[in-house]
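Z., the sequence and structure:
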Amino acid sequence: MEQSDKKSVSVDPVAVVDEATGAADDEKDASPPDGGYGWVCVAACFTVNCFSWGIVASYGVYLSHYLSNQVYPDASAFDFAFVGGFNFSMAMLVAPFVTILAREYGIRFCMIAGAIMESGGFVAASFSSRIWQLYLTQGLLVGFGVGFVYIPSMAVLSQWFERKRSLANGISSAGSGIGGAVFSWATEAMINQLGLQWALRVTGIIIFIANMTAALVIRDRNRHIRPPQLALDTKLLRRYDVLLLLSWAFISMLGYITILFSLSDFALSIGLSHSQATDIVGLLNIGTAVGRPIIGIWSDRYSRIDVAGLLTLLCGLCCFAFWLPSTSFGLTVFFALVIGAILGVFWLTIGPICVEVAGLKELQSLLSLSWMSIILPTTFSEVIGLELRRPGSSREYLYPQIFSGLCYIVASAFMFELRRVKRREHLQNS
């Protein structure tokens, strides 16, 4: 009787079924639930936007105050432009580091650290007496804090929503408009009633309470999706569609920061009062608060890439149609409301578009690249805008206006090219 040298392999059919079922369950869990606790996360992200970018958006009030009152005699207009630019660029600069920390320790750890840094930056700025101290506090420290609070929260809503992804992001990003409007008027009032130092301190205290609350209630779905969360995923940089997306982000940010920070001083340059200049900034942010949820609905109903491209183009055209001829309070108010609704199209659409380009799993990695791509424009765009001014001229802001409009028009060309590429891929795969 022959004996076989081969060993028989025993397969447990129950284990196979369990493994297949588990994989199916994981796949099901990874699908966004389109609601539930996601709406709590929308409220948390709304708060983060309100008390990070909303606060930053009101910097124009501080800028016009610094420029008009010689608060720091050793400072130039470019110094104050850099301080405001650092609020954006430093937030983006820490993005790779924050992405790694969030992967290792969770988003709550990063957001709590950010709440402490951002509020601490404002409080410390109230004690500064030299421009280099303002750089370190209201510039660097506030910027780092914004990055630590905002970057970890940005990917959360796309994990919770699919059909309503743009709507959820639109509601969330409207927080920056609400915060910008409230703090624009509140900052002006606090400076007039309490003085600059206490305006900074009160702002810092409010920021701490609000962002800590958001950090404690927000919840991601990383354990279901298992994203790689790479700080610098170089393989994505080899893709044409990714390069188009990053080019759109880079160029549109040049126009965005110039308009956002210049509008208050522009109002003063055409003879408006300080209170009217503050009203302009506040109304721009009101436009943001109203427009972004509506744009979110459009993006969900139609193509997100199409909507982003059209709005980017519209921003550029509005600069030429309404801002360029603006010499009165009425037309400037109209421009502020219209441009406010569409100005920050990048912040509203970047999350959903990253999913469209690279998929949900690569969302955080592509977002990290997106943040890095806008470091330079957010640092230098307002400096460029101030350099382009013609002080003493009746059209002091003519060249910054043209510069902003051209940036948005050129940026829209990259988004339309991305639309063409994705449509071709869709046709090839169908």
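The CA atoms of residues 88 and 215 lie 20 Å apart. DSSP finds 20 helices and no strands in the chain.

Let me know what you think.
H.
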